[in-house]
Automatic annotation (TrEMBL), chain A:
GO biological process, one term: glutathione metabolic process
Source organism: Falsigemmobacter faecalis
Entry-linked Pfam families: Hydantoinase_B
Domain Hydantoinase B/oxoprolinase intervals: 4-533
One cellular component (GO) term of this entry: cytosol
InterPro entries in the cross-refs: Hydantoinase_B, Oxoprolinase-like
GO molecular function, one term: 5-oxoprolinase (ATP-hydrolyzing) activity
Protein name: Hydantoinase B/oxoprolinase family protein
UniProtKB/TrEMBL annotation, chain B:
Species for this entry: Falsigemmobacter faecalis
Matching Pfam families: Hydant_A_C, Hydant_A_N, Hydantoinase_A
UniProt protein name: Hydantoinase/oxoprolinase family protein
Boundaries of every Hydantoinase A/oxoprolinase domain copy: 213-511
GO cellular component labels: cytosol
InterPro entries for the chain: ACX-like_C (IPR049517), ATPase_NBD (IPR043129), Hydant_A_N (IPR008040), Hydantoinase_A (IPR002821), Oxoprolinase-like (IPR045079)
Amino acid sequence: MQLDPVTLEILNNKVAAITEEMCLTLQRTGRTLYVKETADFACALAGADGRFFAYPRSIGVSGFVGLECAPTIAAVEAMTGPLQPGDVILTNDPYLSKGLATHLPDLHMIEPYFHEGRIVAWGWCFVHCSDVGGRVPSSISPMNTEIFQEGLRIPPVRLMRGGEMVPEVRAFLDANSRTPEANMGDIRAMLAALSAGRRRVEQVVAQHGADVLVQASTDLVALAGKKARAVIASMPEGDYSFSDYLDDDAVSDLPVRLALKMTLKDGGVCLDFTGSDPQVQAAMNIPSHGRPHSWLTLRVLALVSTLDPSVPLNAGLLNPVSIIAPEGTIVNPLLPAATGVRHAAAVRVNDLLNGAFGLALPEALPAASSGTIIPVVVTEADGRGGRNVQVVEPMIGGTGGRFGHDGVDGRDSGISNLANNPVETVEAELGVSFLSYALRPDSGGAGKWRGGAGMALTFRIEREGSFVLARGMERLKFRPWGREGGSPGAPAALIVNEGRADERRLGKIDMLPVKRGDTVTFLTPGAGGYGNPFERTPEAVLRDLRAGLVSPAAAEADYGVILHEGAVNEAATLARRAAAPAPEGRIDFGPERRNWDGVFDAALMDGFNAALLARPAGTRSSLRTAALRAALGALPEGFPRQAASAAEAKAARAALQGVMADA
Amino acid sequence: MAEASGQLPDGRGVRVGIDVGGTFTDFVLHDPAAGRLVFFKEPSTPDEPSRALLQGLSTLLTREGIAFDQVGALMHGTTIGLNAIIQRKGAKIGLIVSRGFRDILEIARCRMPSSFDLHADKETPLVPRDRVVELNARLNSDGSLAAAPDAAEIAALGEALRAMDLDAAALVTLNGYLDPAFEEDLAAQIAEASGLEISAAAVIWPEIREYERALVACLNAYIQPLMHRYFDGLIAGLSQMGVSAPVLVTASNGGSLSVASARARPVETVLSGPASGVMAAVRLAEAARATGDLTGQGIVTFDMGGTSSDIAIAGGATPELATRTDIGGLPLVLPVVDVSAIGAGGGSVVWVDPHGLLKVGPQSAGAAPGPVCYGRGGTAPAVTDCYLTLGYIDPAGFLGGRMQLDAPAAEAALAQIGGKLGYEGSPRDIAARTAEGALAVTTAGMASALYKTLAERGLDPRGFALMPFGGAGPTHASRLAEETGIRHVIVPPAAGTFCAQGAAGADLRRDFVRSFRLDVTPDLTAALSAAFAALEGEAALWLDAENGTTRPRRFERAADMRYHGQAYELRVRLEGDLSAGAARAAFEAEHKRIYGFADPQGRIAIGTIRLAAIGPADPLLPPKLTSGGEAAPKGHRPLWLKDRWHEAAVWRRAALAPGLSLSGPAVIEQDDTTTILLPGWSARVDEAGNLHLERLTDAA
């Protein structure tokens, strides 16, 4: 580091404040719900290498600090020459921006900040806009199989040239959105944010000099890197393997495997995703380009920041991280893989890292969080010939039980810390009535420290011709796992007309047509518990019971607490608990995953995926489907909710290998 | 009821403003007949705050020769409610909600306080889940009745509430904001069935957003029993003393309320302390503007105390009001004087992190052990130690000489920090360089926060004057001004008792809201006029009942407006006529001011309308300047500026007469604070006793 400790601390403070000021400007100027209520945007400053040296801590999407601007800038300059003052780059394409954008509704902008003819910093911002065209309103659906169904791809281009909007670019944008006016409002807000950043950067340059700013941009990243390395060096070295599953890939009922071998060594961490599934024919691929991409490294950021809260929030946090993500897998897909609901897979990647780090540091990491983020959307006729598309609520669950603490009920900032929508504003804007928006009792995994409760949302449709969209529904099959003796959380469910004669229990949905008077109930999963639930203090169980979060039946069955007239029967509880065997193993994935692993163990699946990756890219998906179909054909109906016998498991493995051998 | 002399404020009675702080209870006595303004401090009695209040009042009145029954009004702010909320030591309350929404407080707005802390917890709800009860009661989104409980259900609810052994309860129904009468009626039924006082959300604050509205009701119920006890005790004590004057309670919106109003809605008073200080600054600024001593867009107040610093912005005769404040980790949507924390205070600790960066705060040495120089066992140097080491403050003159400071100890502690930074030279110079660096870090942090606060409003600090108060405000003000490009600093005469002064001059004020929810179309005028007329009727009744002012009352109208598709609303003042054209013009002007553009084709919706009812108080007369102008400093002392020692003149504030002009570097001392005048700045005193610091040359 070059700058003195006082100047560096001053610049550290100033540049972070600039990014927050940019965010405040964007939030105040933006016009859509994504910007205003759910804060699905961010702003930052990047240095000469295109990595962020300043990132906001208290506003906007927290996780994108690892994104890289350099490939986008290079693409524009290669096409149309060096950037000039007043130019602003726009892109939304995960492939051509090399992972700066990760799905098409996210509009990303980059502006060079000049001082005396030289670029001293880059301003960056992104907004999740309402719609960029494509097959479905709001542009993202898990059922999209190619990015070409997901809307307009905007390659890195100049949106602004010399301070003026390029009319051709604007014409393309307007023609390819269901909501061009709202998009342009968001674009104006982004430009306002970039201008605010530019003015403030100019001021820092005037006060401290351009050289000091440029030096600070590398020093601050180096500082964060040094601190992150110190944190990781304090962890026990070794290899830690973990795997987890997505229920399915939305276009079939076949589970999707994510596997990780994490190596901690010499203050660095290598995340090797070899063994993860090939890219899927659904919209949940993570376009990482094999880099330590934000969507693959969020848990590292959270862990380092938890263990050393003083680390500046910038790209340096990822300096100690290296990645192995084989091309053509779900964590490093090739064109034309769809990426719209990449966060659904990222949520599971977060679980994967959480699991692996937890093996190294059992007291620092929680059990699995609920592991799903579902922006529940309703679309209805707006009475003026168009359609009204609104988020009802972004549904999440809770966080996992932790050493010494219960998980958090109904909140989870693991992927993004989005705010919900007030029920009253939704009812004022949309033809739905909320019947209930609540925590979900008995959903949090039992444990010495209980997993956070999931949520239960029920609303009634009040207009004909409405549709319900719910992207990112997960953990309906494979539960959020418990740790160190804790139990898994309850799985998710979606029920139409619950408790009525025409009740329907559905799995994942794309666009669900609903009738006026129908009720729709989303139950999000509970998070995993931590530690043996029979060691939970009876007082804590009684507290949950009185709060209505744990039922009397669960108190007895899951916690061994016997109640008598509203109080704990201590003798009976003691006896009941003494008779219970201690939980086995460090991770409890729940019965579905146990049944699955009983047939498809880690070695088999590692080999299977290696064999698939050896085939030509175009053939992998159909081969994988055929092999798994053959294997499942040998297994009982309802597997993995139903267990397989040893003979069935053997037959399934043989079928799987048979298909691979024949191909 | 009050005698004529007790009526408020008719310009004849004596008014006493009182601010109960953690260390001192401050008094400002205004006696218009004798033309005097007196400041007084009494050590606080935190175990029973009214004791210090009564004791101090008695001492002050006796000292000033004022008969107890001559007092016309007491204006009083208290932090009891705020402390109870922050420490979660309020009443045992229940919450009644619409069926299906028992978890309204647990879910809140779904955000965690921190995204990057795996060990973080959410805020503790004011009402635990087992004391939240659901009721078949809600409205539809068009205001029509969706469900109402029958008598049997109310009776059962009453039983359930009684069984919980509560002190009070809050009520919130879904869409209840559309028709406050619905909840008012329900609350009456529940109160009768349960024997509890019920705070109904839609009655106190009928604004859309159920969680935030529920919190208003919960906070109200949570502090109400406590506040009742306090007010009852205070009134009884005063009456025993022979003071029969009406007590007015200062409110978070910068105004004041009768005790009766404060008993009904104590939640309106929780942030009155900082609000009073800001109001005093605003009044002082308006007076200075009238005499031509203040020009430009307005003031930024700068209150620097022991643990933190706060700013507020006032463009004119009223400060900015916020409608989303954080209070003990909970959002409060009532209008409050918008005070933003911007960083360190005098007790903030100076330290070096493991990677060699110089840091200031957020830990504070507090009052005990306090900074090293207090000699109370503190070993970590704080910002105050930096002032001392740099020569900003006199070790023998702190708190008017009541407390001797240990300068060598402060210097040694800072020199030790400087060693970790690799500084070389004499210990004294190392300590000074360290202190200078720490103040630079502190100032940069404050300036960044100040920029953000102004940027949210689309304002530029360079158009504003800075008005510092609090113990360290004037000491640090010119550094902050220099850093932010502010060219004018106004140091008020009694910077240490500013909140009490604000209380003494507080207007009666209450804010009202109603849901409106119509688009701006040509036939808007009738509906909007009718809605405001209804609110003004309600407001007039309130002002009448406060038995207050004889001066002409004032109503300020505003509306929350947005373009269709926007999810946030802008609050727009509506002055003059209520036509669609005027409403559109006002909205577009505000939109342009804040966002830089307006959309002449955009459909505009009005959500909530707002009315402020104000009963103005008489202005406080400025104190007469008594001291003569000996045009000479009391001495000189070395002052470290930037990178070396300078010899600076030291002046007594009381010795500065109007007309005298000083240039920096200089130190200006008064009992409760010290003002630093930097090189490149001049200082003068105006007729009202304000000290003006002005930048002579262009800032770097």
